[in-house]
Amino acid sequence: MGYAERNTWAQVITSIIAAAVYAAVLVRRLRIQATHEVQWVQPMLWTIGATIVAAILLSIGIGIVAGMINSDTEHRADLRDLEIDRFGNRIGQAFLLAGSLGALILAMVRADWFWIGNTLFAGLFLFAVVGGIARLIAYRRGFQ
């Protein structure tokens, strides 16, 4: 498993875990408060920050273990890695666009900020996870 693929695994794993924790926090708060009263900004910012830090740390940890197991593995991205990255980004961007358009429509109808912010967050989450899964599939099966 190459460097770029390890980073993709780290991104997908941490994104799924972080979004699940964020959703659990929101569901717990929504049980006792109305959406316009729920404090969602701070948990979302913590989730985004923690996801970035956790993905970096997990990638480093996987890299160390992989280096100890097989020190001959190439650590630079090659042309195939770059093409797979572009492929995954194209797939994921559809979800990013859908989340952005959804948030724009919610803003137009003057929906509560809770829904606008979480629609954008969902688009970012789906961009990371679906795009990452598309990259992982491309690494295993090819993408043509």
Q: Give the N-terminus to C-terminus distance in angstroms.
A: 20 Å
Instruction: Provide the succession of SSEs.
Output: HHHH
Q: Indicate the percent of residues in helices.
A: over 70%
Q: Given the structure, what is the number of helices?
A: 4
- Low-pLDDT residue spans: none
Number of domains: 1
Count of β-strands:
0
Share of residues in strands:
under 5%
Shape: flat
Structural class: mainly alpha
Q: Summarize the main sheet.
A: none
Tell me the Rg in angstroms.
18 Å
Mean pLDDT rating: 91
Write the layout of secondary structure elements.
Elements: H1 3-30, H2 41-69, H3 79-108, H4 113-141
Helix pairs in contact: 1-2, 1-4, 3-4
Please describe what this structure looks like.
With 144 residues, the chain is mostly helical. The chain has one domain (3-141). 81% of the residues lie in helices and 0% in strands. The protein contains four helices and no strands. α1 (3-30) packs antiparallel against α4 (113-141). The chain starts with a helix and ends with a helix.
